[in-house]
Amino acid sequence: MRGFLFSDLLWALMLVFAAFAAYTVMPPVVNKAELAFYDFRAGFMKPEYQTSPVIIEVNNDSSEPGSLSFDEVKKIAGILSSGESAPALTVFTAPTGMPDDSSSKEIAIIKNKYEELRSRKKIKDSGSDFLKLLTSLQKSEKTEQQLAAALKKNGKYIMPVRFTAGMPRGRLNSEPEWLKKYAVKVSQGAALSRAKAEGISFTTQKGIIPDSAAGAGHSNVFPDIDGKLRFENPFMAYDGRLYPSLALEASRILLDIPVKSVEFRPGREIVLGEKKIPLTPESMLPVLFSSIEPQRYASREIIDGSVAPEIFRGKTVFMTPAAQRIAETPRGKRQQVYFLISALNTLTGNTYISRPQWTYQLETGLILLAGIFTAFVSSMPSWTFHSLFTLLFAAVTGGSIYAFCSMNIWIKPAVPLICLAAGYLFGVLKRFSFRYELKQHRIQYSNRPPPPPVAGKIQSEADKRRKPAAALAPTVPVNVQELPETIKNALEKNAASAECEK
């Protein structure tokens, strides 16, 4: 039974089967170890970025929590509306609060009632100045129309959309027409299944501001098992359509690519014009976090004139609430806009982390190699056993780091390394157990009495001081009747001579 439990082949098979099961149902401990090793390798990379983002922190709207202050956004848009200070792109990370339009509704009600009374001849009026006044008030530009006009002068801007992730439990809300034109066409049914699940609701910007927007993207983020944000979700599936993220939509506009030139290949890549951006098998984009801190300005600094508006010319401006969510990233806790900027820099850059199909075959081969190492533990000499383990462990770790940092290929070595370490631990315990048994046998052998001296051999001083073996040997009674006749006669003669001497 003990030999079966310590069988090399049994432990090798158990490790291999456990490793393949770990890929099917990844244990949280193994997944966290792999993600930590991913962050360690990503820290060595220094990608080059082509965008120059600027953050404008706008105070939150008091009537609509989570929204931007309408008055401050309007004043900033007016300041940046000149051609000398117009940014290349303005990205709204949150919707803008809309002012109360009850006055315009009241004007419309009064005008309708007045025209009704005139038609019923209750009021006799020919060319009434009152009707002209109501018409002029109704034709005047609304406040939100003024904001939309100022934003259009600034350049292109993107409005956010937020989906409620999860499986639908009821009838889906219909998207507005302005949002549908930014959806990516679905050519395969698998595209929707590979994107995040549909939700039962979503929130968009109210009013007429989206009518002149250059694009719209979702602001949903999905942390990993340890709560950190590492991967960008390029698309959200809703009502049979795919909607891009804010970072992907900003990349499309900055690269001047039409919506029809965007193609989503599930689990493989995103085709953005002539650019091909690889994705993970889960259709996620690994984000390389920027080490450059973006410039930040408060809305009051721009409104008061303490910041020259010319510094925003040709840059990507992010309108974000001053009080926003804090996200956990591999670089520490940062505002969520920091993750959005890093995702935009990754999409517009030329450094992408990919997982080709052969990486899965390589990881499978590494697991089998760890099983073969465990199966031949007993037959290896001690120095070969330790040297081979050190060589394999260093090769797998160093090779994955080299492929990640030099070739931008993501190999997951956590499961093969754990199998290799488990096989090494099994071999060490087995060798220690056998060495302990051998030592016990040697101790028992050393406790035996020394052999008797050989006749004709010159004895040393140590041999002379040593007691003869016959003295240590136990006396055994001898039956004289069972001895041969010659021995009996010899004993009788010895006994007779002894009597004569007495």
Question: How does the SSE layout of this entry go?
Answer:
Layout: H1 2-5, H2 8-24, H3 28-42, E1 53-58, H4 70-79, E2 89-92, H5 102-119, H6 129-139, H7 143-154, E3 156-163, H8 177-180, H9 189-194, E4 202-203, E5 215-218, E6 231-232, E7 235-238, E8 241-244, H10 246-254, E9 262-265, E10 269-272, E11 275-278, E12 285-286, E13 295-298, H11 299-303, E14 316-321, E15 326-329, E16 332-335, H12 336-348, H13 358-375, H14 382-407, H15 414-446, H16 461-465, H17 469-472, H18 485-501
Can you characterise this structure?
The protein has 502 residues and is of the alpha/beta class. It folds into 2 domains: 2-44 and 355-443; 53-104 and 140-348, no CATH class. It has 18 helices and 16 strands. The longest helix is centred in the last third of the chain and has 33 residues, at 414-446. The two termini are 68 Å apart.
Summarize this entry quickly.
The chain has helices spanning 2-5, 8-24, 28-42, 70-79, 102-119, 129-139, 143-154, 177-180, 189-194, 246-254, 299-303, 336-348, 358-375, 382-407, 414-446, 461-465, 469-472, 485-501, and strands at 53-58, 89-92, 156-163, 202-203, 215-218, 231-232, 235-238, 241-244, 262-265, 269-272, 275-278, 285-286, 295-298, 316-321, 326-329, 332-335.
Q: What is the count of helical runs?
A: 18
Radius of gyration: 42 Å
> How many individual domains?
2
Shape call: elongated
**Quick check: average pLDDT?**
77
Uncertain stretches of 5 or more adjacent residues: 469-473
* Strand portion: 5-15%
Biggest sheet architecture? 7 strands, mixed
Compute the number of strand runs.
16
Kindly, what is the distance between the CA atoms of the first and last residues, rounded to a whole number of angstroms?
A: 68 Å
Helix content: 40-55%
Given the helix and strand composition, which structural class is it? alpha/beta
